[in-house]
Structures are given as C-alpha cells and as structure tokens.
Fold this sequence. Notes:
Elements: H1 11-33, E1 38-44, E2 52-54, E3 69-76, E4 100-102, E5 111-113
Antiparallel strand pairs: 1-3, 2-3, 2-5, 3-4
Amino acid sequence: MDISPDHHTPWIFWVLLVSVVIILGQSLYENYFAKNYAFFLEALCDSSVNECYVRSCDDEECPPNSLISYRVFELPAYQFHNCSDNSCLNICPSPAYGCEEIACSTQSDISCEGPGTPTADL
C-alpha cells in the first residue's frame, strides 16, 4: 500500500471552501449585525377607534397572544430593541422608527372591523 504524502488538494475544493465561508459570513452579517429583515407584529386593537383584523379562535388555532381583534405592524428588526413589549405600541406606527401599520382594508382575504371598513359601512 503506497500512500503518497505529496497528494495535492484539487483547486475546486478551495473554490468551494472559500465560497461557503463567504456565504456564511454574509448571512451572519445580514442576520446578526445589520438585521436587514422585518418583523410583523400583532398588537391589541380597539375596533371602535381603529381598523382591526379579526379572527375566530373557534375554527382555527389561535396564536400564543390569543388576540381576536388586532392590528399588524411591520417593523425593521434593528428597531425592535426600542419596543417596550412584543406589540411595540410605544413606537408603532411611527415614521421615525420605520414602523408601518398594515391596514386591514388592503387585504382581500381577511376579516376586518372598525371605522371605514366595508363591514362597518353596511
């Protein structure tokens, strides 16, 4: 059995290894340091004041927050540390933090209630 110590690693191995390291580094930077993604948050909603999403917990599984009437906000992940709780109502909606409310009336397959919704105008 002859094992040659001068066996060379093929160049394709090094190209693949460098590619994997670059991809892992980029993913780590984007997700851990820059936080270039968005959170969608649900917050308690009063349908007499705001336009609210409505879900029934009878026919579907409710999320852990158990909200039946709620508002949805889109918040950049790098701003989440400014929130006082998971609903982020202390900073949402606010253009200063980049937090935007996603109006229920802009969705076609969701139940809505509150002022200005088609169900409220009937």
